[in-house]
Each structure stands twice: as C-alpha cells, then as structure tokens.
Design goal:
By secondary structure, this protein is an alpha/beta fold. It has 4 helices and 5 strands; from the N terminus they run H-E-H-E-E-E-H-E-H.
Length: about 130
C-alpha cells in the first residue's frame, strides 16, 4: 500500500506544473492509474469539482474536521452500526464543500443505497 500512495502522489504532481497553487478536478483524480476500475455511482454533475487534498476518513464525524475541497476515501469503518450517520454523510459533506467521496466496496460500509446516490446527485458530489 505504501508504494501505491507514493505513486498516487507522484501522478498527481505530474498532472499540474504548479502543484502548490493548482488543484485537480475529480475527473483528473479518477483518471489516475490508481483509480482504474472505480465506478462513478452518483453526483456526475460535480465531476469538475476541485480537489485540494485526498483524505482517508475512518473516524465517526470526521467530516466535521474538514476545510473544504477534499476528495474523501473510506472503507466505511466509521459507519459500522451507524445507519443514521450514513444517511447524513452527504449532507455533512455538502455543508463542508467536500469534492468527492470514494467508498471501498465489500468492506465495512455496506450497501450504497438509492437514497445515498440520490443525495450525491442532488448535492453534485461525485460518489465513487
């Protein structure tokens, strides 16, 4: 995994000439080799949202700590036995101006239901 993260950072730096000033769009992040095979489930209208940071989120209520324009990655551990938090996750992400949320399937999160996809579409937050 350590090598994958280093490759991801290297790939991000190669896309833009001035990484400190510029950010990537969600679409550009998803075009990186490390995201090959990922599926956009909802929020397609937000695909050009800018991503200043990629954040791994595995803490309940961690969205509250964000500054905005983060691309969130999660295996869903923070959502175990917390259906209410799942239901409000995208509302909190919208309020914090999160750029996108990628959930690793077949881990802790469980089913990504129709309601969550509809919220992603409503708030234009790509759900991957």
């Amino acid at each position: 995994m350590e090598g994958s993260i280093k490759n991801l950072i290297k790939g991000m730096k190669n896309i833009k000439t001035d990484y400190e000033k510029d950010s990537l769009s969600v679409e550009e992040v998803l075009s990186l080799p490390e995201f090959e095979g990922y599926k956009l489930l909802g929020g397609k209208e937000g695909i050009q949202r800018r991503c200043k940071h990629i954040v791994i989120l595995e803490t309940p209520m961690g969205i509250d700590w964000l500054e905005g324009e983060e691309f969130l990655l999660t295996a869903g551990y923070a959502f175990i036995n917390n259906e209410e938090y799942k239901k409000t996750m995208l509302i909190a992400a919208y309020k914090k101006n999160v750029s996108a949320i990628a959930i690793k399937e077949k881990r802790y999160f469980g089913e990504i239901n129709k309601e969550l996809i509809e919220q992603a579409n409503k708030f234009k937050i790509p759900l991957i």
